[in-house]
Design a protein that fits this description.
mainly alpha; about 0% strand; globular
Amino acid sequence: MIEIDKTMEKSNSTSESLLNKEHIHKEDICKRQFADVDKGWAWVVLAGSFGTFCLMGGTQFASGIVHMILLEKYQTSVSLTSVAGAVHTSLISIGAPLSSFVLERNSCRVAIVTCGCLFFLGYLGTAFAPNIECVIFTYGVVAGVGGALGFTASMVVVGYNFQRRRNIAMGIAVAGVGFGITFLAPLIQFIYKEYGSFGFFLLISAIYAQSIVFGMLAIPSKLELYTKARRTEQAVAENNKNGFSSRCPKLKDSLSILTNKELLLLCFGLFNFGLGTYLIYLHLPRYIVEKGFTPEVAANLVSLSGILTVIGRILTGSIATVKFIRDDILYCLPMFILGIMTIIYPYISSTFVGNLIFAIFLGSFYGNVYVLTTSVSVKHVGIVNLAKAIGIQYFFAGLGILLGPILAGVIVDNGGTYEDSFYTAAGILSGTASFVSKSKPLETET
């Protein structure tokens, strides 16, 4: 019996050794196959992604100035003029599935370059637009679709160029949004003051054409080429399996992803996150003024939150690289913290310190969810389906962004107060964090 046990032990040891060697061999093959990931040109691609996100942050700030310019230039109603800005802002997220389609059929590079072209044409067309209806098309639709192409592709391209350092790289990339809000704001204001409405749109079109340069840097990595080949193989296999019954394999493939329950939870989370945070940002400046502070103080506090979101996103990416930190928990944590602070805020908003504390928390935790969207999505759907998954999630986020201001208006117009809006946002954010945290990551490929 002892000899049999020893033989079995030796056999098991040999099997484990072979399995370990096979695993190490596969890892070595993977490292050789994706040798350009996490180093070399990947950091240049990251710089281009940061630059594109910087322009995205700038366009978010510029929407307020554009609204003011359009009111003065065309002398139309506020509601009609606001359509242009609403379409532009919401399309950046709602149009994410279109970006996923473009970058899957071509590449992230093509999507970002197209983003720059559409930004250029949209702003240039707005400079020559004869009426507000044309502006809704040029600025709202053309530039809005351009933003959608660039936003999603700039996020996905980081996932294709980083594996081990993916979270910190994503933190650096999306920090560009806060950087753009903070540092492009004075430039945008200066351009309008010095050159008027016509010169403003001409110069802005030239600035946003720089997305073409950033896109040209995004040379497809070996991992991106690999995922494209895998998607092609899967599509061919699906067509061969179903014969001629599958007329729209791309659409069928996208719809099949929606059967992933964890992905649906992430979609639900980003929808409510967009709904809650945009509801807060809509009423925050006016609420601070009603509490007895000057508009300048309100503007400075909002600007401070923009600066802090840069720091918060980079820190989130850094913390997520720690081995014992679960990025899915870190994904939900900002929602929960913002929810709790928004409940407390009305009770401390009568003092400057109270408003300062809320601005610090808002800036530090707003947008941190976007840092981890890529890594969390990869765990649920795999790298091959990353583009589609992010596109679907940001479509839902865009719906939340579009409906948030509407919900805020309904609350106030029907006898509610700004405090009621904040309590609603708090309930949405904290409840969403508890619900989304129930999702269980799957073991999928890189």
